[in-house]
Amino acid sequence: MAEAEEQETGSLEESTDESEEEESEEEPKLKYERLSNGVTEILQKDAASCMTVHDKFLALGTHYGKVYLLDVQGNITQKFDVVQVFGLYSGEEFQETFDCPIKIIAVHPHFVRSSCKQFVTGGKKLLLFERSWMNRWKSAVLHEGEGNIRSVKWRGHLIAWANNMGVKIFDIISKQRITNVPRDDISLRPDMYPCSLCWKDNVTLIIGWGTSVKVCSVKERHASEMRDLPSRYVEIVSQFETEFYISGLAPLCDQLVVLSYVKEISEKTEREYCARPRLDIIQPLSETCEEISSDALTVRGFQENECRDYHLEYSEGESLFYIVSPRDVVVAKERDQDDHIDWLLEKKKYEEALMAAEISQKNIKRHKILDIGLAYINHLVERGDYDIAARKCQKILGKNAALWEYEVYKFKEIGQLKAISPYLPRGDPVLKPLIYEMILHEFLESDYEGFATLIREWPGDLYNNSVIVQAVRDHLKKDSQNKTLLKTLAELYTYDKNYGNALEIYLTLRHKDVFQLIHKHNLFSSIKDKIVLLMDFDSEKAVDMLLDNEDKISIKKVVEELEDRPELQHVYLHKLFKRDHHKGQRYHEKQISLYAEYDRPNLLPFLRDSTHCPLEKALEICQQRNFVEETVYLLSRMGNSRSALKMIMEELHDVDKAIEFAKEQDDGELWEDLILYSIDKPPFITGLLNNIGTHVDPILLIHRIKEGMEIPNLRDSLVKILQDYNLQILLREGCKKILVADSLSLLKKMHRTQMKGVLVDEENICESCLSPILPSDAAKPFSVVVFHCRHMFHKECLPMPSMNSAAQFCNICSAKNRGPGSAILEMKK
C-alpha cells in the first residue's frame, strides 16, 4: 500500500512539474499527494460528489448516494446508504426520509453539547432540526422559494447558505436573518457554477461565486440604530475579481487558498477545453488581490470535469487542504523545512540548502547536514569551482578524517590536489601521513615555492620527514643551486633535529635565520670551525653572539679561527675591548697593530683606555707610521713631555694644541719651553697672549717680545688680557662678599643657638659624680653648670679655673680638643 501511495504521489508530482510555472524560480508554498488506499477503490466504481473534514477522520459522499467514513490515510472505516445524524462515540441517532433530494447538510459546530443538538439540511428549502426537551426532534423552515440550496456553512451562532439568488446569514440566537448578499453574475447557471463559502473566523465569511470573491464581516449594530433591525449587520470589507471560476475557498492565516476551474482555448482548434484546475494562494486587498503562489493540478479526468465537480475542504488544525474531484482526491499541505530543502537542492541552490539545514537542524527529518554538504562539494567540483569546493570542505567535513581522506583522493583524481592543500586539517583531526606526503610530492613536481610554503606552515609530524628529505635531495641533484629547495631542505633538517646540516645550508645561503637557529638549538659546538663564515655573513650579529656566549666558544678559540682574517679579528677584539677593558688584555699588543691598520680613529681612545698595552711597542708602531697625535700622547704618558711638546710645535704647528697640552701637564718648565719656542713666531705669540693669562703671568711673555716685532691682532690680545684680569678681580671680590655674608650668617645662627635655654630636670645627671643634677630637697640652695655641649655638672664637681684664664671648659669636650663646650651656662639657687 505504501508503494502504491509513493507511485501515486510520484505521478502527481511529475504531472505538477509539467505546469506553466516549471521554469519559475518561485518556490511553491504547498505540496501535494493523492489520497489513496480505500479512496482509490471507491472512485474506480463511483464518483466523489462532496467531502467534509475532521481532524481525526474524513467523510466522503458519492454520486451513488453513498457516504464513506475514512481515516486520514484514506482507509474506509464505515459506510452509509441513507441520511443519518448519529454520534460516533455515543448512542444517539437521527434518521429520517425526506420528500425531496437533500443537497447539503450542516450540524452545529458544538453538536456534542446537549444544548446544541441542531443541524440544517438544504434542498429546495433550508430546514433547521433541533431536539426538544422531550428528546424529540422538531424541524423549522428557515428559508425557501429561491431555488435549491447547494452550500451551507455553520460557524458559532451564524449559519450562511447560498441559493440561486445569493447568500444569506442567519443568527441562531436571535432567530433572525441578518443579511442577503446577491450574486453578481446572474448569467452563470448556479447549478453549474455553485457558490463557495468558508468562515475565516466567527465573524468573517468569505464568498466565492463565479469569478468574484467577497470578504464579509459580521458586526454588532449600535443600540441607537437597532429599531426594528437585527442586532447584527454585515459589511463587505474586500471585494475583487479573479481570473478563473472559483470552485472552492479556504483560509490560510491572513491569506486565501482558492481552487479555480480553468477553461482555455486550444491554439490548434481554437476551441475551448477544460484545463487543469489551479490552486492559488492569494493575499486579499480592499479592491484587489496579490497572488502569492499558483499551482496547476493534474487530477484524474480533469478534461471532463466542470466547475461544480470540484470542491475544496480543509482541516483547520493542521492546514490540510483536500481537492475533491469526481475521480480523484488530492491532499495539499504546507511545505515544511524538509520540502524547502528539497526544492533548493532541486534548483541546485546548495549553499542556501546547507544554511537552511543548519538553521533548522532540530526540525528537519529527511535530510542530514553532512549529506547536503557533500552534495554541495560535488556540485562545485562538477562546475569547476575547485577552490570554493576545497574551502567548503573545512566547514562541511569538520573533524571526520575518513571523509577528508576520501575528498583528497577525489581531488587527486581530477588533478586538483593544490586546491585542497591550504585547507587540510593540521591538528584535530590528523590524516594519514600518506595524504600529506602525496600533496607535498605534487607541489615538489610543479611548484617549489608552494612546496616551501607548505613545509613552513605544516607541523613536521604530519608526514614522514625522511621521505620528503630524500625527495628534495633527488630534485637538488638536477638543480643543486636552487635556493628555494636548499632553504626548504634546511627547514626539513631542522624538523628532523639534524641541525648541523641545516646550519651548513643556512650559512651557504647566508640566510638571516642562521643566528636564530644557533641560539634556539644551542649549536655553538657546531660553529667553532665556521666562525669566519658567520663573520663574513654578518659581523655585527656574529660578534655579539660570540661575546654573549664566551663560556661556549672561548676568546682564544675565536682569535685563533680569525688569525688569517685580521680585519675580522680586529672587529671581534675591538667589540670585546668596548665591553670590558681587561678581558682581552693578552691581545692588547696585537690590537695596536690592528687599530693602526684597520681603525686609526679608534687607536688613540684605545691607548688612553688600555692599561695593558706596552707603551714602547705602541710608540714604535706610531713613530713608524708617523701617527703624531698618538706619538704625542705616548711620549707624555711615558714622562717625556718636552719631546711631546716639541713634536706638537714642530710637526703639527698647532699653538692651541700646544697650549692645551701645557695646561694638561701644568708644568712651569713646559710653559717656559713653549714661550721660548714661540718668541720669534708672531702667530704663536698671539695664541699665547690669548690663552696664557690664567696660567702664566702675561708680563713674562710681553717683556720678551722684541721691539719692532709685528704681532697680528696684538691690540685685541692685550685687551683680552686686561679683560681677563678684570674678570679675575671681580670674581675674587664677589667670592669675598659671599664668604663674609656666609660667615656673618653662620655666626648669628650660632649665637642664637647658644642663647637658647636648656631643659634641666630630674632625669639629668652630673657628668662628673653621676648623681642626679637636681637635689632631692629643692629647698636647699644648689649650683649647676651647663655647657653648650649639653653636658651638666655640679659646680663643686668642676675643677677650679686656672690663674691664666678665668673661663671654664667642659671636662669631656676638652679632651676632644676643646669642642663645643667652650662656654657655660650657670644655674644658682
UniProtKB/TrEMBL annotation:
SMART domains: CLH. It is found in: Cytoplasm, Cytosol; Early endosome membrane; Endosome membrane; Late endosome membrane. One of its GO terms (molecular function) is microtubule binding. One of its GO terms (biological process) is endosomal vesicle fusion. Keywords: Autophagy, Cytoplasm, Cytoplasmic vesicle, Endosome, Golgi apparatus, Lysosome, Membrane, Metal-binding, Protein transport, Transport, Zinc, Zinc-finger. InterPro entries: Beta-prop_Vps41, Clathrin_H-chain/VPS_repeat, TPR-like_helical_dom_sf, Vps41, Vps41/Vps8, WD40/YVTN_repeat-like_dom_sf, WD40_repeat_dom_sf, Znf_RING. GO terms for cellular component: AP-3 adaptor complex; clathrin complex; clathrin-coated vesicle; cytosol; early endosome membrane; Golgi apparatus; HOPS complex; late endosome. Residues 14-26 have a biased composition (Acidic residues). Belongs to the VPS41 family. This is Vacuolar protein sorting-associated protein 41 homolog. The gene is VPS41.
